[in-house]
Amino acid sequence: MPIFCVDLLTSPSHRIKRRSGDCVNMNNALETGNATAINTSITNNKGLANYQYSLFMANIVICSMNLMGNVAVLILICQRKLLGRTTNVFVFSLAMADVLCCLGAIPYSLHIAMDRSMSVYLCKTYFYVVCVSRTAVAYTVILLTTEKILNILHPARFITAGRCMFFISLVWFFSAAYNVWTVVFYTIYDSENITYLELLISSERSMYGKRCFFSTRFDSLKRVFLTIDFFVMFVIPCAVLGGACFVIVRKQHGSIKQRFETYYYIMRFIFFIFVVYISCHTPFEIATLTNANIPEPDEDMDTFYKASTTIYYTRGVCFLVIYVYFKQYVCRRNKLRNVPNTNQKTQLDLPIRQQCRGLSLNELRLNI
After folding, report:
1. How far apart are CA 315 and CA 85, in angstroms?
2. For residue 195, which phi and psi values (nearest 5 degrees)?
3. Which of 3, 6, 169, 228 would bridge with 20, disulfide CB 3.0–4.6 Å?
4. Spatial CA neighbour of 136 closest among 104, 106, 177, 78
């Protein structure tokens, strides 16, 4: 005859009899879950170290500067109607991506720096907008570089601003659709680490926490998705940009070389954009991929990830410096042309025809 036991976690009116083996497994699971919950609460109450707090405050300052500067760029482009040029279309896309990243990063960093409870919606929104921004920036830089090189190599095949806006729309559609997985995988609550008893005592634990992490329910997919993410957002764009640089070096001969010398100002603009992209994204992508392959990263790895995130946020500020340096090329509607002033009369103007009928010969001489 089987032996039954009483479940003490429920109220007397809802006690359920279970087999003895099930009770032992349940008690072991509860002990493990309670230990995990205690460790989690100790980690949350420990707070941030001084260097971690400094990094998050630096993130807030950098993102605030980034947000104000890029909003000013967007307003300038819209007010002066500068989207008629292809370069301004790409600058508008880069500025929009940086604004979107800052709108998610500022409240996220502020919650962590102040050690406040975080909404699960803020957690999911932060990782979603950051990934969308990364994808949009990467492929916007690809389109910018490709469009400029094609205009230099094939001047007769002029790429209009309307076509650039179409391709930028496809980039943003792809960025928004591809990164939906972050909404599912990132969370602040994990039922694997919080026991049923703790949820009964504090129902807020099911929706609020102080950290945002990859859910343990999807541990088997974590490495796969982050590896694919690394190739889509970094390796493929770097390969395309490297191929574009190879084309530029290979075409340095004859008339093509003269074209590159003529468009030297544009080539410098593309080069600086490329350097900023590589410098700001490389540490962040390496840290993200390393965290995906390490089950339990140590404190040094966590510090490297936070520092690389701060470097990643500086991308928008560096782009602003480039826009200011190339302001005569970026923030103008048309190219400079030597258009003559039609209001001034020249020596070739025809004389005014006058009515000569009924005038004497002396009066005609005076009029001439």
Report:
1. 23
2. -80, 165
3. 3
4. 177
CA distance 320 to 135: 19
Alpha-carbon distance of 100 to 96, in angstroms, equals 6
- Which residue in this structure is represented by tokens 């600086």? 272
Please state, in angstroms and rounded to a whole number, the distance separating the CA atoms of residues 331 and 173.
26
Tokens 């976690």 appear where?
9
Average pLDDT, the chain: 76
CA distance 163 to 169: 10
Q: Are the beta carbons of 301 and 294 closer than 8 angstroms?
A: yes
What value does the CA radius of gyration of the chain take, rounded to a whole number of Å? 32
Q: Which residues have C-beta within 8 Å of that of residue 318, sequence separation ≥ 6?
A: 276, 279, 280
Record: fold of 49-330: Rhopdopsin 7-helix transmembrane proteins (1.20.1070)
84: three-class secondary structure by DSSP:
coil
Under DSSP, is residue 87 helix (H, G, I), strand (E, B) or coil?
A: helix
Q: What mean pLDDT is predicted for residues 229-236?
A: 91
pLDDT tops 80 at residue 143: yes
Residue 248 has pLDDT above 90, yes or no: no
Element (H, E) at 19: strand 17-19
Which residues lie across from 6 on neighbouring strands? 17
Parts of the chain belonging to CATH 1.20.1070.10: 49-330
Compute the distance between CA of residue 290 and CA of residue 171 in angstroms, rounded to an integer. Answer: 27
**Can you give the pLDDT at residue 294?**
78
In degrees, to the nearest 5, what angle opens at C-alpha 226 toward C-alphas 205 and 234? 130
Is the pTM for the entire model greater than 0.70?
yes
Total residue length of the chain: 368
CB 88 within 8 A of CB 149: no
- Cα(226)–Cα(222) distance, integer angstroms: 6
